[in-house]
Fold this protein.
Amino acid sequence: MRQIAQINGYSNYEVVSPLTGHCPTFYLSAGIHGDETGATEGLLKWAKLNAHWLHKAPLLIYPCLNPWGLERNSRLDACGNDLNRAWEKPENPLIRHVIKRTNDLKLQFVITLHEDFDGQGVYLYEPSVGGRRNGKAEEIVNAARPFISPDPRGMIDGRKARHGIIRPRPTNPPDDGMPEALYFYLKHKCSTFTFETPSEFALGLRIEAQVAMIGEAIDI
């Protein structure tokens, strides 16, 4: 674990295993939106529970991409920017570091952790790889069932959903900028999952749901 940037008085950290660079790597990040506490806390708890083997897996982890926003319960950073719409031409030095750090890595898959104010259960985004689904999405959502059921809505954030799974077209990015997960999907052509827990549910349940989904996705 090492400090990689100092932004607005806050330290930003990267956690990397010795195997990164030699094996296809798992990329995990949380806290790009500071008002999504269950994501950062879920990633932290998962890492603590698995600390004994983290060095044995090819992991690259960014535990909190927006610590200024996390402390203030703000979706945006100190400059009023949504860092999850800033990955095409990034001005933020942390995002520039992440892009440079991953340029030469072979990523096995990417997991970005989020929460949704309007969520009615857990759900995830999964762009298809080469027109084919990864096959893990259903298992990941079901892993959270002991804590939070899948979101029952048929439309979530303007996109079709089924049993808590949204499969957006990568050719139709948001109008307001490039998200982190879509950047990695397009750049590295790897499986990409974005987990969402409902931020109005109890924090403890949201943390456990995130832990369960990460554990199901990283089945080593």
User: Anything to note?
Assistant: The first helix runs from residue 37 to 49. The CA atoms of residues 85 and 177 lie 4 Å apart.
